[in-house]
Amino acid sequence: MTTIVTLIGLGQIGASIGLALRPYAGRIQRLGHDKNPEVSQWARQLGAVDKVDFNLHHAVEPADLVILALPAHEILPTLAQIAPDLQAGAVVLETSPLKTPLQAPAQEMIPAGRYFLGLVPTISPALLTEPGHAPRADFFSHATLGIVAPQGTPTEALKLVTDLAQLLQAEPFFLEAAEADSLMAAVHLLPQLMGVALLNLTTGRPGWSEGRRLAGRPYTGVISAPQETPESLAALARLNRVSALRVLDEALVELQKLRAAVAADDENELLDILAGANQQGERWFQERQTGDWLAVEMGKKSLPETPGFFGNLFGKRKK
Length: 319
Hints:
Blueprint: E1 3-8, H1 12-21, E2 28-33, H2 37-46, E3 51-52, H3 56-60, E4 65-68, H4 72-82, E5 91-94, H5 100-109, E6 115-121, E7 144-148, H6 155-167, E8 171-174, H7 177-203, H8 208-214, H9 217-223, H10 230-239, H11 241-263, H12 267-290, H13 293-298
Parallel strand pairs: 1-2, 1-4, 2-3, 4-5, 5-6, 7-8
Antiparallel strand pairs: 6-7
């Protein structure tokens, strides 16, 4: 029996899912739809989908699984359009970085016997330092896929989503919607907002005409964080306002600590802050590379001693 998967939104996430499912052509048929016809055609030529349907309703009608690979603010309007087209037993899976504000409205929109779940996709550890936003078949390989399932979701729907994670060569990980939103505010939203703040700070200064010539890797590393469009990033901040304010306030506290150490010319305190951050960054990067979170949590595996991504950026603490 062939499972029909309809991908709505054929950007990096949607097309990468399609490419990862390509080897299962005998078991899975991939239908694709994007509001931009040129993107749809490009995804078809890339091999991310078997067929493109420019009619959104037709694309959804036969689907066992509908994946909304869309920005957070487009999920509910799109769901409102396709809800009447969902066949009995169909599962709708959205991949946005926002969960709680979507859950209740979505449950009201979809007919009985259809199911709405959230997915928090993460990138393969092998690609963390790779530039570019092109879709890849191995985009999710050895990564974690967070799954947010409302209470009462039937086993069949849960199995469909966990099976998808396995086909993507990723590890499924269940979490609550509020937990997902809190975590994503810190690791997805805040880095992008800090990049925005740096851009506004530097490009708005009188000396930018000279400074722009000197900006290098440290600058690029921060400003390259934004992956969302301004509309999408604004929606994430507004719709996840409580968590957004919390992480912004916490970031200000950390900046104040740095400022105080610099103002006091306190070398030891400054080195404590910088070396501690470097150590934690290296630890995270190595943990992310191994992907054996249970072993890390249980203390069963020591981390590799090889230099990591951060490369001792801040040097070693003086004794």
